[in-house]
């Protein structure tokens, strides 16, 4: 049994490169501040436009008149997070396709609440399981 020994010298860093942390540039700060200001402006516009005329049911539950697609997209957005979007590809790369079993379990696990609990909450005009409890 032989042990492999490397005889090559380690690579030295070139003089033109530096290993450092990248920071925000002025343009990054401008875009970030514009994002915050635009979000604030949208919120203030909608708050001032209809202040005091809406009930809690209209604001939180859209008066129960939303279609299936917006509700489904909202639920999908709550299940996905930045951590999941960044972590799932690395999880699959590292451990293979066994991660798909979790997806299958999500699919099967969500069928039970969708067909048993959600109709009960809807008939009772409840907004969450916490309100039921």
Quick overview of this protein structure:
The protein is mainly α and 133 residues long. It is 63% helix and 0% strand.
DSSP helix count?
6
Domain module count: 2
Helix content: 55-70%
Mean pLDDT: 79
Poorly predicted parts: none
Query: Given the helix and strand composition, which structural class is it?
Result: mainly alpha
Secondary-structure element pattern, one letter each: HHHHHH
Counted beta strands: 0
Strand content: under 5%
- End-to-end Cα distance: 67 Å
Shape: flat
Main sheet summary: none
Gyration radius, in Å: 26 Å
How would you characterize the overall build of this protein?
This is Solute carrier family 5 member 6. Pfam families: SSF. It is a multi-pass membrane protein. Keywords: Cell membrane, Ion transport, Membrane, Sodium, Sodium transport, Transmembrane, Transmembrane helix, Transport. 63% of the residues lie in helices and 0% in strands. The chain has 133 residues and is mostly helical. It folds into 2 domains: 23-52; 62-132, no CATH class. The protein has helices spanning 26-49, 56-61, 68-79, 82-95, 100-123, 129-132. 0% of the residues are buried. The protein is flat, with a radius of gyration of 26 Å.
